[in-house]
Design a protein that fits this description.
By secondary structure, this protein is mainly β. It has a single domain, classed as Rieske [2Fe-2S] iron-sulphur domain (Rieske Iron-sulfur Protein, 3-layer Sandwich). The chain has strands at about 5-10, 20-25, 25-35, 35-40, 55, 60, 70, 85-95, 95-100. It has a 6-stranded antiparallel sheet, with no helix packed on it. Strands 5-6-7 form a 3-stranded antiparallel sheet, with no helix packed on it. The mean pLDDT is about 95. Bound molecules: FE2/S2 (inorganic) cluster (FES). FE2/S2 (inorganic) cluster (FES) binds near residues 47, 49 and 66.
Length: about 110
């Protein structure tokens, strides 16, 4: 899949918040940092916790299950960049948030 998918309107994700969205069957966590949107794989690499439901503190999201923190811009775990979540390209078009899945998050059947 090399195209952008609309996942929400800008007004649905206020600054300082995030949510989980479905991008063609893949759960992605989207965050609004002062009007700029970032998207990462929703699955925490520790045990699969839903990062889109985590608390956003500055540029970091805290996993709601066991508290690991990730920088939503880089995808790196805070204090241990050996753990990372995959980032997605995000753009805003006419008030809509659009996401493009990287190859590593696409299902084999996606095109
Ligand atoms: S599943 Fe995220 S910290 Fe454990």
């Amino acid at each position: 899949m090399d195209h952008y998918i609309t996942v929400a309107s800008v007004s649905e994700i206020p600054p300082g918040t995030g949510r989980t969205v479905d991008v063609e069957g893949v759960w992605i966590a989207v965050f609004n940092l002062d009007g700029t949107f970032y998207a990462i794989d929703n699955a925490c690499p520790h045990a699969g916790g839903p990062l889109g439901e985590g608390k956003l503190c500055g540029t970091d999201v805290e996993c709601p299950w066991h508290g690991w923190k990730f920088n939503v811009m880089s995808g790196e775990r805070v204090g241990n960049p050996n753990f990372q979540v995959t980032r997605c390209d995000v753009r805003v078009m006419d008030g809509r948030i659009e996401i493009r899945l990287p190859v590593e998050l696409q299902f084999p059947s996606s095109s």
